[in-house]
Design a protein that fits this description.
The complex is a heterodimer. Chain A is of the alpha+beta class. Chain A has a single domain, classed as Cytochrome-c3 Hydrogenase, chain B (Orthogonal Bundle), CATH 1.10.645.10. Chain A is globular, with a radius of gyration of 22 Å. Chain B is of the alpha/beta class. Chain B has 2 domains: about 180 residues, NADH:ubiquinone oxidoreductase-like, 20kDa subunit (Rossmann fold, 3-Layer(aba) Sandwich), CATH 3.40.50.700; about 80 residues, Irregular (Cytochrome-c3 Hydrogenase, Chain A, domain 2). The chains are: A alpha+beta, B alpha/beta.
């Protein structure tokens, strides 16, 4: 039978999934992106320096990744030499954004798939935040009003965590995480001006003049975030995973993995990065070639040609196209479907043996969880890879602050040339993000974005190969085909961002 | 309906208080205005149109009160796509209960623009976003347009956009409707601008509006309260991006933007754009990003 399980909540934007379920097994899944704005069209004819501002508005959850990718693209296009402080501030802003995003993703977007909110009614301790929450839920349930305790209830049917203490602890951390994510965002605002949507990020650096006031505040905030990551975030992931061990196997995507690498160690465009770039096809890691990426649109709502390279990208919306079922395009790497995101980022680095800390952490937690490295391609594998990323990034950011020189400039001084073209690639929290800019007569002639969720939630390509999420859903057993909490858990593990995917 | 009478009474008291000040009211009425009246707590049904979710994320950055307090004590957040446990058909039927009028009074909160010329460009469940807005129009007490996209169209409505995006006020206007709409612009919106408007609704009723925006936050221009106003007067202008001083010559549109960023600041009052030497790009303005030729920055070209 055919069941549409959208709109899927607890993710960014407008995603629906059309499933076919036979004997409680999902036999087909169509990922449907339901919102389109046309950023690449809107950008044409604008001043290039508008781009790192406008493209942040593609996504208010990970805006800085777009600002950084756009800045890299413009630096490449115009040959801008970014001073070391400028690159460090880019990193400090972008890295703190990853930390906030991982916490938000686990506690606010994913935890309610597993945690039993009603366990709070059994709370008998004296923590005032928990007693307040308990009394609120109790009063709501007794109020006789429709939809008591929204937005935490109602919820999908299914098995939730049984351990009362674990549930209550996770709920406490749900509330604490909301406070801690603010600290990560305050840290990035020190250099970026504000969050979301920083106005201080530019090609060539950042307009803030870093001083000891900024640096000490930033470090203190990141220390608090780091402590939460180690003391609460990682233990909570492992505890929830222990109660649902089957999710180390469920939600396996069936293609390769792609990462552009994250957080450069130096100002030059080709500086080594904290996380290595690479693409894994058939188990082998290779260097990334942007020319190998093509976007198919057979099942996407566009009448522009299919299979175009990024630099040749075109976008003619066709909302009534017969064969199409999504606004998302289907990017493919040399024709291969790949998964992007924290899982891919960690797997690419691990496969190359690039960052020894990542290798150590993967081995440590794989052992605790009783999985092989292969198990990272799963629902909890993706959660674990976010946590590993968080640990590595937090330490990097603290070290990076030591490299800021308060006496040196943070911005390159430049004049923009009449024309140029360039790619800019980084890792958003959700994965591989590529921007391409071409400038003619001082204006943007073409702008293309190939965004993480474009890869992960893509529809089928021209050869009818499913996208990464689609492939991870197919074959999943669902207890209640009408609701499919199991599918929701898989979808959330990818942390989809639909505003990014379609843009 | 004693609750309704109480609300009407408090609204009347509010009118009096705005005319004569709260201290002239009897003590019992003052107390009633100060406490949270359960019947006055607004139910919010929060929908995303052509949005980036930046405003929702900004709402989570709130302090004093924080987001948890706001959705448990000052409002009932019946539905929000990023926070709701419910999903799929269950979520759609919840929304339908409110829009049909069966679940009681509510305010519609909207983040994002409406693709007027291409309704298929925004769909929630099996309905276009536009159809959801039409259903809500029959039953909602009013709507809060959260952020510049919902208030004025924002970037989805920028020059050359392919979907014919418009604000929710413009969308309803084209349908011949004039519901109560409070516009709270900002790209993204500041959490205080939204949450303190909700608190105003709870404690004092509708806030005073100026140009359809809460006067409390949008009465004055950024430039007029800017800590660098002195630099402007002394003609100490930043020449290059990254310089201190008044940022006007780099393109700062603080002189033309109504918002209280220069006194409120952002992210727990940590910083704000001009504090990081970044020119204001007028993200809370009606015409934010609307014209291709009106670029954000004045900078040197080759």
């Amino acid at each position: 039978m055919k069941v549409q399980i959208g709109p899927i909540t607890r993710l960014e934007g407008h995603l629906s999934i059309n499933t076919t379920v036979e004997n409680n097994i999902i036999t087909n899944a169509q990922s449907v992106g339901e919102m389109f704005r046309g950023f690449e069209i809107i950008l044409r004819g604008r001043d290039p320096l508008d781009a790192q501002q406008i493209t942040q508005r593609i996504c208010g959850v990970c805006p800085y990744a777009h600002a950084i990718a756009s800045s890299y693209a413009q630096e490449n296009a115009f040959g801008i030499k970014t001073p070391p402080n400028g690159r460090i501030m880019h990193n400090l802003i972008q890295g703190a954004n990853h930390l906030y995003d991982y916490l938000l993703h686990f506690y606010q977007l994913s935890a309610l798939d597993f945690i039993d909110v009603t366990a709070i009614l059994k709370y008998s301790g004296s923590d005032h935040k928990l007693t307040a929450l308990r009394d609120w839920v109790k009063a709501e349930l007794a109020s006789g009003r429709p939809f008591p305790a929204a937005p935490f209830l109602p919820r999908l049917s299914g098995k939730y965590l049984a351990d009362t203490d674990l549930n209550i602890g996770a709920l406490k951390h749900y509330m604490e995480a909301l406070e801690i994510q603010k600290k990560a965002n305050r840290a990035s605002a020190i250099f970026g001006g504000k969050f979301p949507h920083s106005t201080a990020i530019f090609p060539g650096g950042c307009t803030q003049n870093p001083n000891i006031d900024h640096i000490s505040s930033y470090r203190s905030l990141i220390f608090d975030v780091k402590e939460f990551i180690h003391q609460k975030y990682i233990p909570d992931i492992l505890a929830v995973a222990q109660a649902f061990p089957e999710y180390w196997k469920i939600g396996r995507s069936q293609g390769g993995f792609l990462s552009y690498g994250l957080l450069p160690f130096g100002p030059e465009p080709d500086s080594a990065r904290l996380f290595a770039p690479g693409v894994i096809l058939n188990g082998q890691s290779e260097a990334v070639n942007f020319e190998a990426i093509k976007e198919d649109v057979k099942y996407s709502r566009y009448s522009s040609p299919s299979g175009l390279k990024v630099r040749d990208g075109a976008l003619t919306p066709a909302p009534h196209k017969e064969s199409a079922y999504s606004w998302i395009k289907a990017p493919r790497y040399n024709g291969h479907m790949v998964e992007v995101g924290a899982g891919a980022r960690v797997l690419v680095d691990y496969t190359q043996g690039h960052n020894p800390t990542i290798k150590k952490l993967v081995n440590k937690y794989a052992k605790i969880a009783g999985i092989g490295v292969d198990g990272l391609n799963s629902v909890f594998g993706r959660h674990l890879c976010r946590a590993i990323s968080a640990v590595v990034i937090a330490d990097f950011l603290l070290a990076e602050t030591e490299r800021l020189d308060p006496k040196a400039p943070g911005m390159a001084i430049y004049e923009l040339p009449e024309s140029g073209e360039g790619f800019g690639a980084t890792e958003a929290s959700r994965g591989a993000l590529l921007h391409y800019i071409r400038v003619k007569n001082y204006k943007i002639d073409r702008y293309e974005c190939v965004v993480p969720t474009t890869w992960n939630c893509s529809p089928m390509d021209d050869k009818d190969q499913p996208g990464a999420l689609e492939s991870a859903l197919i074959g999943t057993r669902v207890e209640n085909p009408a609701e499919q909490i199991e599918a929701n858990r898989i979808i959330h593990s990818f942390d989809p961002c639909l505003a990014c995917a379609v843009h | 309906m004693p609750d309704l009478d109480r609300r009407k009474f408090l609204k009347l008291a509010l009118c009096l208080s705005s005319a004569f000040g709260i201290s002239n009211l009897p003590e019992s009425v003052q107390a009633a205005l100060r406490e949270i009246d359960a019947a006055a707590i607004p139910t919010l049904v929060y929908l995303h149109g052509q949005s980036c979710t930046g405003c929702s994320i900004s709402l989570l950055q709130a302090d004093d009160p924080n987001a948890v307090t706001m959705i448990t004590e000052y409002s009932k957040l019946a539905f929000h796509t990023d926070l709701s446990a419910t999903s799929g058909k269950q979520a759609l039927s919840l929304i339908e209960e409110y829009f049909s009028g069966r679940a009681g009074k509510y305010f519609l909160a909207v983040e994002g623009a409406v693709p007027y010329d291409m309704p298929e460009a925004c769909v929630i469940g099996n309905k276009t976003f536009a159809d959801h807005l039409m259903a809500a129009a029959k039953t909602m007490e009013g709507a809060v347009a959260i952020g510049t996209c919902a208030s004025y169209g924002g970037i989805p409505a920028a020059e050359g956009n392919p979907t014919g995006a418009v604000s929710i006020k413009e969308f309803y206007k084209r349908q011949g409707l004039k519901p109560l709409i409070i516009n709270i612009p900002g790209c993204s919106v500041h959490p205080d601008w939204v949450w303190k408007t909700v608190i105003h609704l709870v404690r004092l009723g509708l806030p005073d509006l100026v140009n359809g925006q809460p006067k409390l936050f949008f009465e004055r221009k950024i430039h007029n309260q800017c800590p660098r106003y002195h630099d402007f007067q002394q003609e100490i202008f930043a020449k290059n991006l990254g310089d201190k001083g008044c940022l006007f010559k780099l393109g700062c549109v603080g002189p033309d933007t109504y918002a209280d960023c220069s006194t409120r600041w952002w992210n727990s009052r940590q910083d704000w754009c001009i504090g990081a030497n970044a020119p204001c790009i007028g993200c809370a303005s009606r015409l934010f990003a609307s014209k291709k030729d009106f670029s954000f920055y004045r900078h040197r070209k080759g």
